[in-house]
Amino acid sequence: MEDRLISMTTDKEKKIIEVLRLHVCKTSGEPIHHASYPEEIRFSKGERPCDAIWQGPREAYAIEHTTVDSYVGQRHDDDRFRKLMGKLEKEWSDHPDDRIEIAIDVRAIPNGVNWDDLSNQIKKWLSENVPSLPCNNQSTVKIPGVPFDVYIYREKLPGQGQVVVSRLKPVDLAKQRVAVIREALDKKIGVLQQYRNRGYSTILLIESSDFALSSRDTIFKDLRDAYLSESDGPVFDQIYIATTGTNPWCIVPFKVGQERMRKPNPYWPAAPGYPLGIL
Predict the structure, then answer these.
(1) CA of 236: how far to CAs of 46, 52, 90, 93, 189, in Å?
(2) Distance of alpha carbon 172 from alpha carbon 41, whole angstroms
(3) HSE value, Cβ hemisphere, 13 Å, CA-based, for 129
(4) Residues 182-205: pLDDT tens digits?
């Protein structure tokens, strides 16, 4: 078979996987060592390498890492939102005594828009209409040439004028997060099943870096709702949640062997002073 290389494990992935290794070493009481990053080794066509291999005194571990959004398409939406609305926050100076909060719905920005033109249209409308907006009250406005509603809150703050942009939280946020997590589980079953068949103990690490819309508690709850014992249990020997949007990073066990945790108990192996060392 033809050998090939695929995208290599990133530095951040390596770091979060190492954070998890420290935690597993501590809780298992065994000296588990990093062995390799299979994605950096040539492999046969048709094989799907995991992200890392560890070696313990009794068994080898196959680790697969995945990141999850808080809602469907969040990372794509984040990029579009920054391109369009970030310019307003940086450049606003037209009304130095007005603090303006602008919000739009998630996924409101359609495909095919000209970022600069749309941003300039919003800025022009604000410059001309802010004085007529009611203070301390949210207004829903339709700006000519802008293909979505804009929600604006105006507050008088002499000398502290600025624009703050945001998006409204989806009303079905938990339902969307369950769907995102379920999709992540489905994508990793095939990878780790092949290692399970070869005698490896399998570990899935689910990472979230969104601290605004998600927390270890909400991810744990929605993972519990997304998890299917019949299909997931035989494949994933261990499942952990990693929250990396705050400092230090936090590890939350979800499943270890046959035991599924009842609540999210956090550990902080990325924190200074953790018993097995500091990253």
Answers:
(1) 21, 15, 45, 53, 8
(2) 42
(3) 15
(4) 999 999 999 999 999 999 999 999
Strands 60-67 and 52-55: antiparallel
Phi, psi of 24 (to 5 degrees): -65, -40
Assess contact for 55 and 35: CB atoms under 8 A.
yes
Rounded distance between C-alpha atoms, residue 13 and residue 35, angstroms: 15
- pLDDT tens digit string along 31-63? 999 999 997 765 566 678 999 999 999 999 999
Q: Which amino acid type is present at position 135?
A: C
Q: What is the 3-state secondary structure (H, E, C) of the chain?
A: CCEECCCCCCHHHHHHHHHHHHHHHHHHCCCCEEEECHHHCCEECCCCCCCEEEECCCCEEEEEEEECCCCCCHHHHHHHHHHHHHHHHHHCCCCCCEEEEEEEECCCCCCCCCHHHHHHHHHHHHHHHHHHCCECEEEEECCCCCCCCEEEEEEECCCCCEEEEEEECCCCHHHHHHHHHHHHHHHHHHHHHHHHHCCCEEEEEEEECCCCCCCHHHHHHHHHHHCCHHHHCCCCCEEEEEECCCCCCEEEEEEECCEECCCCCCECCCCCCCCCCCC
CA distance 143 to 191: 48
Confidence (pTM):
0.87
Output the pLDDT for position 90.
77
